[in-house]
TrEMBL record:
Lineage, top ranks: Bacteria, Pseudomonadati, Acidobacteriota, Terriglobia, Terriglobales
GO terms under biological process: cell division; cell wall organization; peptidoglycan biosynthetic process; regulation of cell shape
Record-linked InterPro entries: Mpl, Mur-like_cat_sf, Mur_ligase_C, Mur_ligase_C_dom_sf, Mur_ligase_cen, Mur_ligase_N, MurCDEF_pg_biosynth
Swiss-Prot/TrEMBL keywords: ATP-binding, Cell cycle, Cell division, Cell shape, Cell wall biogenesis/degradation, Ligase, Nucleotide-binding, Peptidoglycan synthesis
Protein name: UDP-N-acetylmuramate: L-alanyl-gamma-D-glutamyl-meso-diaminopimelate ligase
EC numbers on record: 6.3.2.-
Record-annotated Mur ligase central domain positions: 112-308
């Protein structure tokens, strides 16, 4: 692609789209974008890169006429900018297609896929390679992560293509659809040389009709891995087993089973870190330490270690990388500690993710009262298909508050989650729960009930009405009770 193009991105504030914008800007292109929901961290990243965000969508945002338009997968027919692009025959493409054509060709594609854990696992893998590259520059990674990796302070990095051997490019393999004109999963554009498959569950109920459809998507990804490649796959899931059963490449399973190729054992959380042993094919591989809580994070780390080791990364670099790993923005991120109240931000978007987040917080903050504050915002959580599972996950908290369903009018009423049903089910279990109209109502209801020592987990995959600023400010101004509560 020539370095003088003007590229406009419709729906630029999605994590992958914003990261791609930064990558294209680094290549020398003039990049502009538009969206209706600009919020941190990606809005801050775009501002830092000098990429303007036009709000709202409008035909004038496409003036002067761009050379190319990248259409985000959240954009549908009827969007005023998309309609203008089609009417005026402005060339357009998808995020996944341009990512392959401009960045993956000539590099080693290492893809992390699964319905949970992709962002954290990809960040871990990138940091492993970065640490290893200190002794072997050929291992210096390029990457694209669906969040801001705190070790790097960015969601992407692009290194020059190596002369002697392909440089690694690490990226999340998103099973969500590609664009309005390409309804296949984005990861089918990435043609992995090796891959990780973490979990396979029913998700994205807006585009997949059932679990069988989700599994078909992952089977198609597995079918793209060449015979010379490798697949590291979780062994604690029948769904994963079904998806990898017909792989043509080597498959290495990881988990807690005695016969796992990569076996996890002796896991414990102490002194602010998770520690465990990993065996490889029955022999000791490494003792790992990760400064994070949560069984799911240890499993993610094991998967990253397994893929890296199989690609030739030294064990010493893997061990060092985990001991210095700093997580990802909006993954169990401590946003504030005010008057003894700890506020946690987590991107939880599925009942399983919520369950693992709350389990991790129980380990990290033993004996402290745990609040779960949920905004049903993802296309999955806004639907009632997971209502029972959501109750089971939230029941791990001591008290819960639910906000109204985000943009509820866009979900058919018969499919729409009713937060009050969830609250009533929790109340029936003796767990205090209430429903609030919005972030302001949540803050008003929550602050008078907080006490020093409380942990508040805010669960949303969006901006949640700026609650991450409003809640700490309200606590600072309010009166917080002391123990006992």
């Amino acid at each position: 692609m020539q370095t003088t193009k003007h590229i406009h991105m419709i729906g630029i504030c999605g994590t992958a789209m914003a990261s791609l914008a930064g990558m294209l800007k680094e290549q020398g292109h003039r990049v502009t974008g538009s969206d209706t929901a600009a919020y941190p961290p990606m809005s801050d990243m775009l501002a830092g890169w000098g990429i303007p965000i036009h709000e709202p969508y409008a035909e004038r945002n496409l003036e002067p006429r761009p050379d190319l338009v990248i259409v985000g997968n959240a954009i549908s027919r009827g969007n005023v900018e998309l309609e203008h692009v089609l009417d005026m025959r402005i060339p357009f493409t998808s995020m996944a297609a341009i990512l392959h054509d401009e960045f993956l060709v000539g590099r080693e594609s290492l893809v992390v896929a699964g319905t949970h854990g992709k962002t954290t696992t990809t960040s871990m893998l990138a940091w492993i390679y970065e640490v290893a590259s200190r002794n072997d520059p050929a291992l210096a990674p390029s990457f694209l992560i669906g969040g801001v990796a705190e070790n790097f302070g960015t969601s992407f990095m692009v290194r020059p293509i190596g002369k002697d051997r392909p440089q690694p490019f690490l990226l999340e393999g998103d099973e969500y659809d590609t664009a309005f004109f390409d309804k296949g999963p984005k990861f089918l554009h990435y043609f992995p040389d090796a891959a990780i498959l973490t979990h396979v569950e029913f998700d994205h109920a807006d585009i997949y009709v059932d679990l069988a459809a989700v599994k078909t998507a992952f089977k198609r990804l597995v079918n793209l891995i060449p015979r010379r490649g490798r697949l590291v796959a979780f062994d604690g899931s029948e769904n994963v087993s079904e998806c990898v059963a017909k792989a043509f490449c080597a498959v290495e399973r990881y988990g807690f089973a005695a016969d796992s190729f990569w076996r996890v054992s002796g896991m414990r959380y102490e002194d602010g870190a998770t520690r465990w042993r990993v065996d490889r094919a029955g022999a000791h591989f490494a003792d790992l330490t990760l400064p994070m809580a949560g069984e799911h994070n240890a499993l993610n780390a094991t998967a990253a270690a397994a893929l890296a080791a199989g690609q030739g990364v030294p064990v010493a670099a893997i061990v060092e990388a985990f001991s210095t790993f700093r997580s990802v923005k909006r993954r169990l991120e401590v946003r504030a500690e005010v008057k003894g109240v700890t506020i946690i931000d987590d991107f939880a978007h599925h009942p399983t993710a919520i369950r693992e987040t709350l389990r991790a917080l129980r380990s990290a903050y033993p004996g402290r009262r745990l609040w779960a504050v949920l905004e049903p915002r993802s296309n999955t959580l806004r639907r009632n298909v997971f209502e029972a599972d959501l109750v089971e996950s939230l029941a791990l908290a001591d008290k819960t508050l639910l906000a109204a369903v985000f943009k509820s009018e866009s979900i058919p009423e018969r499919e729409r989650l009713v937060p009050q049903h969830v609250a009533d089910a929790l109340l029936a279990r003796g767990i205090a729960s209430a429903v609030c109209a919005d972030a302001d109502a949540v803050v008003s209801a929550l602050v008078p009930r907080l006490a020093a020592g409380d942990v508040v987990a805010i669960l949303s995959n969006g901006g949640f009405g700026d609650i991450y600023r409003k809640l700490p400010e309200a606590i600072e101004l309010g009166t917080i009770k002391s123990w006992p509560r």
